[in-house]
Amino acid sequence: MPGEFRPDSVNNMPIEYFLTPDQLWSDAKDVIKSEISLQNFNTWFNSSSGVSLDDETFKISVPNKFTAEWLKNRFNQAIVKAVACCLGTSRKIEYVIGNSNDPISPVGNTPVKTTTGADSEPAATIKTDSVDFESNLNLRYLFDNFVVGDSNQFPHAAAKAVAEAPMQTKYNPLYIYGGSGLGKTHLVQAIGNEATANFSNLKVLYVTSEKFTNDFIDAIARKKTLEFARSYRSVDLLLLDDIQFFTGKEATQEQFFHTFNALYQAGKQIVLTSDRPPRDIKGLEERLLSRFQCGLVTDIQPPDLETRTAILNMIVKLQGLSIPPEVVAYIANNVTRNIRELEGSIIRLNAYGSLNGRKIDIQFAQEILKGTFTAGKEISIKSITENVADYYRINPDHLKSKRKTAELVRARQVAMYICRKYTTNSLKKIGEEFGGRDHSTVIHAISTVEDNLDSDFNLKSAVDSLEAAIKS
Ligand code: ADP
Ligand code: MG
Question: What is the pLDDT of residues 60-101, one digit of tens each?
């Protein structure tokens, strides 16, 4: 028993015989204190004490079950390490709920406040400073700075519902998809931030599917797959971003499937995002697909003019920029498909303005941004078809048909040439769009145009004006 030692055999005694459990805990806490934030330390360790120590186990008394779970889930590794360091040998740690006059309640009531004392502050601390767990949340992404419009109303409402009652909504999993730069990451991060603020004991993890994959590969290499699985499966709210990157990665999908099932069956909440609906993720296993469809699948559309204007106005206000409404309108009218570019345009304009000491008015905005708007304009087979049909004054359906008048053949060749030059579509796809032709016909069309551009004045002027039209 600790403390029961005879002075003559002191030198042979292991160190634990000299320490009362509470002294040991006090030393171990000093080690832990140097490794984590003071706030975390005060929140989770202050009211604990060492209660017993034997050859196998060191028991720590904590004021409530909640604290026990926190210590176990987030700090166990650090505690084991610190105890081993003070003792010179390791012990299994057990947490017992004891009577304490100084109970630790969820983070909001911690003995030590953050410098601002703001209610939302503790959420930020949990994520950044815990020893073995990072939630990867970024406080920049909040519901408060997410502008809601027709294009994102539904996913926003579902996201909000999940943040308010994770694990209790019908939306499990919640699957949000949409094009790049439309706010998917912002929404899922906002769920994480709000859920953490609402439920300080909730274990939230945001991860991109790329990171999930890398962690998994890393775990295989280090023979730590069990640990990998355990750490992911201990999460209450899993936010998995951009799952299209799972495409073709069978082992990762398999691992994700097991993680997904384990969490789902334990009633945990899962939120997924992708740039496309579940059925369009190539190589996604049927069983995962059907799991995704059990919850709620919802999409974010490109924002309408009103939403784009509101987003720009919000940026202007939040960043205290001085940008007149007509410039905001100019940007909102020209950047239509990507909110990231919308933000980028206004920030770039502001930066150029301050660098050059120029007042930001509509002339300056046009000067700076016009080129980038043109470059970013989406050019599709459809828009090319329309422009070519218009130029040659023919019916666009004829261009897409198998008909072969000399005029149609020429127009079709020009259309194919421009499609190849300005879009990322494959030769096969271009052939299919223009009358179901095969890729060798497309290659022939393209080289015919290229070969004749220098010598055929009519062809050259057609191509020049069509290129100008599709870019403007
Ligand atoms: P995605 O993940 O869909 O590619 P992001 O979530 O990264 O897009 O959004 C791109 C940028 O646009 C981010 O800076 C984000 O904060 C901003 N953003 C997107 N949607 C909105 C919105 N509705 N209101 C305000 N900002 C938005
Ligand atoms: Mg994203």
Answer: 998 777 778 778 877 888 898 888 878 777 889 998 887 543
pLDDT at 299 over 50: yes
More confident residue, 250 or 307: 307
Looking at the CA of 208, name the nearest ligand.
2
What pTM did the predictor assign?
Answer: 0.58
Q: Please tell me if the CB atom of residue 188 comes closer than 6 angstroms to any atom of ligand 1.
A: no
| Ligand 1 pocket, residue 152 CB under 6 Å | yes
Give the distance (Å) from ligand 2 centre to CA of residue 320: 26
Confidence band for 110, pLDDT divided at 50, 70 and 90? very low
- Residues with Cβ < 8 Å from 333, sequence gap 6 or more? 305
Sheet holding 49-53, edge to edge: 49-53, 57-62, 92-97
State whether the beta carbon of 427 lies less than 6 angstroms from ligand 1: no
**Average pLDDT, integer, range 133-142:** 87
CA of 210 to the centre of ligand 2 (A): 12
- C-alpha 237 to ligand 1 mean position (Å): 21
CA of 182 to the centre of ligand 1 (A): 5
* In the predicted structure, residue 338 carries a pLDDT above the cut 60: yes
* Model confidence at 434: pLDDT above 80: yes
Residue 384, both tokens = 């090319």
pLDDT over threshold 50, residue 387: yes
| Inter-residue contact 193 to 204 (CB < 8 Å) | no
Q: Give the mutation target among 144, 182, 209 for probing the ligand 1 site: most ligand atoms within 8 A of CB.
A: 182
Q: Output the pLDDT for position 106.
A: 30
User: Does residue 206 have its Cβ closer than 6 Å to ligand 1?
Assistant: no
Distance of CA 363 to the CA centre of its chain: 37
Decide: 311 in ligand 1 pocket, CB within 6 A.
yes
The residue nearest atom 14 of ligand 1, judged by CA position, is 340
Q: Measured in angstroms, how far is the CA atom of residue 244 from the centroid of ligand 2?
A: 11
Tell me the sheet residues that pair with 298. 176
